[in-house]
Model the fold of this input.
Amino acid sequence: VKIWNLTKRQCIRTIQAHEGFVRGMCARFCGTSFFTVGDDKTVKQWKMESPEYGEEEEPIHTILGKTVYTGIDHHWKEAVFATCGHQVDIWDEQRTSPMCSLTWGFDSISSVKFNPIETYLLGSCASDRNIVLYDMRKSTPLKKVILNMRTNTLCWNPMEAFVFTAANEDYNLYTFDMRFLESPVTVHMDHVSAVLDVDYSPTGKEFVSASFDKSVRIFPVDKGHSREVYHTKRMQHVITVKWTSDNKYILCGSDEMNIRLWKANASEKLGVLAPREKAAMNYNQKLKEKFQYHPQIRRIAQHRHLPKSIFCQIKEQRIMREARRRKELNRRKHSKPGSMPFVSERKKHIVAVVK
Done:
């Protein structure tokens, strides 16, 4: 585990935390310590501050588990955390055995996330294509939604208690309202490969997604297409992504062992702004908003240079989508009226909802 100082852009501390991979990490809500889980079946709690001179680097607590844990998340208000592996375990920080274990079906669970508002709710993604929702106050899971393909991770909206976004293997992201899981609120469709991670901005209006197609995209919550795409020549498959709490930056970690720091708003000027600069920027922003539907202005605002690989894949997928649509139209034309119902894009990807 490495701890970085973002202002100096230096690694200030390295911890040999586990034997083998470190699978998950989360900070405690107070920010004084953090937890890690690894392939050695242990959960460890560490101090956020560096040890004193001459002091050994040792964890505060170590919990020996029975299985390999693949993810961990901390409760937003209490001394409780959840781990996932073969099942979702809820732990009290003071105890060495879980308070309760929640399971629904038998499969490996890849990630678990606590709701930041309704703090007793949590969601998990399993590799049998399920998104399962749990309530900590009950000993059984609430409900689950089964999608066409596997969901890699999910993230709760920090401003709307019931809304979460799931990053899926079928190149899309799905924003759900947990009360109506029959169809997603929005399907976000711009990536050309599996989406591996997603994180919300602290305002709850946008989220950022990391994909296997070597790009990072920023989506408004209510729009189906991204407003921004980030990529570099050297950046490989992006595995993880985080939006900083001051709403200014995005951090991403990728396959070629680099952490990159991006601006959340690409054209924003960093540093101190003079009053006239600030006024000019606000004026320009208002102009953009006023004329946003003018065809030429909209073209300039939406145009992004893309790597050749992504550009070609987008083209290819457009052709495939058109072919599927044509095939469906032909089938409907030559079938008995009413025998082939229209299925909306939102409902196409949902297999079932189990309560």
